[in-house]
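REQUEST ID: PR-0412
SUBMITTED BY: lab tech R.K.
PRIORITY: routine
TASK: structure prediction, single protein chain
INPUT:
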Amino acid sequence: MAVTLPNKTKPSKQIELFSPQYFTACALGGVIACGPTHTLVTPLDLVKCRRQVDPKIYRSNISAWRTIFAGEGLRGVFFGWTPTFVGYCFQGGGKYGFYEVFKHLYGDKFFPNMNKTVVYLGASASAEFLADLALCPWEAIKVRMQTTLPPYANNLREGWSKIVTKEGFGGLYKGLYPLWARQIPYTMVKFATFEETVSAIYRTLGKPKESYNSLQQTGVSFLGGYIAGIGCALVSHPADVMVSKLNAERQAGEGAGAAVSRIYSNIGFKGLWNGLPVRIVMLGTLTAFQWLIYDSFKIYLGLPTTGGH
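STATUS: complete
OUTPUT:
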């Protein structure tokens, strides 16, 4: 059921659910939700990545920002924002767009009697698998820029050129497997937890979603997103640490398995959890605003918000 909007803001042509236009709109919503939000938390991501690679580099997150700002100004605090913005625009479009595609295919077409949670998990895993193919090159550049001092590159163009010149295009994808290991569980938790949390909220409220106005529905989306974001941080953090380490320290010609084994022998199990508190704050806030933006965009287009059906 579409949400009714005032005529002055509602698009003139209604988008049919599960049509190509619908999936394109969802992908665009993902771009809008993910690119800007990931870019805004670049200061958190910068410090998190550096502390993952070298836990002794800063005494705390606050001291890290003070040190960076004193030496490099605001540009230093947001260092790496360009590959972040480009990468997560691609990834957000793929993740949200393909999620809606696979949720429709798995839940309505192929396995109509399948448990909904299983559908959410399968659809989100499939979507993230594809989205990471677009994210990986930009993530590789971002991590190298942020975790090496002096920086591996000063901007996106320089980072791309140096990696491709020295390592070929394969250098942009050497972190793909750990990226999948980080992002696929992360996205499975993000979407399945969000869907189930939103449904639980509406069950607790005691009325169907459609009986609430758009502001109330997006409020539910924000709360569900924050809860989902905390779960995302916990399930994906060890792989996130390994992605940072691999992109910063993997040696030329070294296999992925050998590199992971060598890095783990150096940092141990405890080292896999470096930077977790800041990542919980970052991902809780990030995920909440992404769902708020995404569902607000869907409402603007006259489409129903996600979850609670």
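NOTES: Residues 119 and 278 are 31 Å apart (CA to CA).
REVIEWED BY: pending
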